[in-house]
């Protein structure tokens, strides 16, 4: 997969969030929730107009260029929020976490801001750079889509169901575009043409003729997926207060963060159980039976989703913003990190396998007509 060049123009525009957020932090009108909402909407509108006037041809070529440019700006804002909440800087976004979205001050909120400010930011620059160079960015777009959707699926319900539901402010409605954009962007990314395959019909036929024992990498991935599926189901049962002794021991001795009343970990485990678990079953099927051409795309989506989920979950489980009683006990650190790190890396290895050698997943291609010599 070719990595496109980063978009310099978008990067420069996004860094405007630094002086702007510092200036807004000292505006007295933003000490009220409604002031934060109107100012946020005004800034996003002016930002879109600036991007449209500077990059009209790129937006006409692909409207997602404007989306990535605007979101790169908000990614810098999120990184400022995370750095400020962890005490690395001050005087930038205190007004927003106080009057706009106070739940961003939770451990989970801090880590989704880190992910958005680093991983999503680089993805936005890379995808915007690809659009400027008229190159493909389908694989990057699918990874971003999964990561973005997973973040929203956990963060928004967690805000409503958790202990911060009484602190939802009008700025919460600024997240509505975050619900609509992934639907539209996802359709556009999926509809992009795939990169031409270098696999010949003979290569596809030869690869799909191999049994599972002749494909040790696939066998190892299936083994991993089986264990990951059981782990996903188990943690889902844990947050549903399953009365089994194993669930009781796990939630108190290994991951007490699952009991945190902020609700993000509980929502995360339920999302995993209802969405990730079925995908694991389908992925096992696709690794056994050839011709499942949908798997490479969806592995990228779920790799992004699980990467974002595990980064936020692992970080919040150890963060000082999480009450001490809900943090991972010191004697469980090793098992906690090994299990959760493997859970995060597995889908990425599966996605790499699908991109590295896609012949097994391609539909059988018609080969060249056979030429028979006449026998006299």
UniProtKB/TrEMBL annotation:
CDD domains: TM6SF1-like
Limits of the EXPERA domain: 61-186, 217-351
InterPro entries associated with the record: EXPERA, TM6SF1-like, TM_Tm6sf1/2
Claim: Transmembrane is one of the keywords in the record: yes
GO BP of this protein: lipid homeostasis; regulation of lipid metabolic process
GO cellular component: endoplasmic reticulum membrane; endoplasmic reticulum-Golgi intermediate compartment membrane
GO MF terms held by the record: identical protein binding
Residues spanning the membrane: 33-52, 64-83, 103-128, 140-162, 168-187, 219-240, 269-288
PROSITE patterns tied to this protein: EXPERA
Record carries keyword Nucleotidyltransferase: no
Membrane topology: Multi-pass membrane protein
Pfam families with a match to the protein in the record: EBP, TM_Tm6sf2
Broad class of the protein's primary localization: membrane
Protein location: Endomembrane system
Keywords: Membrane, Repeat, Transmembrane, Transmembrane helix
Similarity field: Belongs to the TM6SF family.
Protein name per the record: Transmembrane 6 superfamily member 2 isoform X1
């Amino acid at each position: 997969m070719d990595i496109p060049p980063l978009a310099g123009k978008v990067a420069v525009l996004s860094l405007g969030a630094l002086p702007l957020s510092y200036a807004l932090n000292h505006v007295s009108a933003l000490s009220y929730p409604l002031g934060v909402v109107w100012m946020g909407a005004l800034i996003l509108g002016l930002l879109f107009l600036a991007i449209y006037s500077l990059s009209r041809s790129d937006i006409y070529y692909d409207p997602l260029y404007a989306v990535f440019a605007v979101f790169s700006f908000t990614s810098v804002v999120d990184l400022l929020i995370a750095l400020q909440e962890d005490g690395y800087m001050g005087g930038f976004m205190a007004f927003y976490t106080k009057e706009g979205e106070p739940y961003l001050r939770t451990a989970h909120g801090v880590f989704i801001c880190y992910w958005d400010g680093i991983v999503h930011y680089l993805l936005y620059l890379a995808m915007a750079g690809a659009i400027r160079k008229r190159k493909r960015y389908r694989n990057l777009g699918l990874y971003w889509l999964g990561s973005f959707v997973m973040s929203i699926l956990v963060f928004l319900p967690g805000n409503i169901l958790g202990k911060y539901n009484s602190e939802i402010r009008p700025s919460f409605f600024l997240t509505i575009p975050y619900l609509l954009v992934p639907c539209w962007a996802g359709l556009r990314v999926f509809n992009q043409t795939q990169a031409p395959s270098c696999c010949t019909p003979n290569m596809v036929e030869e690869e799909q003729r191999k049994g599972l024992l002749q494909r040790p990498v696939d066998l190892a991935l299936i083994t991993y997926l089986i264990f990951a599926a059981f782990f996903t189901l188990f943690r889902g049962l844990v947050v549903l207060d399953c009365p089994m002794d194993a669930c009781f021991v796990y939630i108190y001795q290994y991951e007490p963060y699952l009991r945190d009343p902020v609700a993000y970990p509980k929502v995360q485990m339920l999302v995993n159980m209802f969405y990730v678990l079925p995908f694991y079953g389908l992925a096992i099927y696709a690794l056994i039976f050839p011709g499942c051409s949908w798997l490479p795309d969806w592995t990228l989506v779920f790799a992004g989703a699980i990467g974002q989920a595990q980064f936020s979950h692992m970080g919040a489980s150890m963060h000082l913003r999480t009450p001490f009683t809900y943090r991972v006990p010191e004697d469980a650190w090793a098992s906690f990190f090994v299990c959760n790190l493997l859970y995060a890396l597995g889908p990425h290895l599966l996605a790499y396998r699908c991109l590295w050698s896609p012949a097994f997943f391609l539909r059988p291609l018609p080969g060249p007509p056979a030429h028979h010599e006449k026998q006299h």
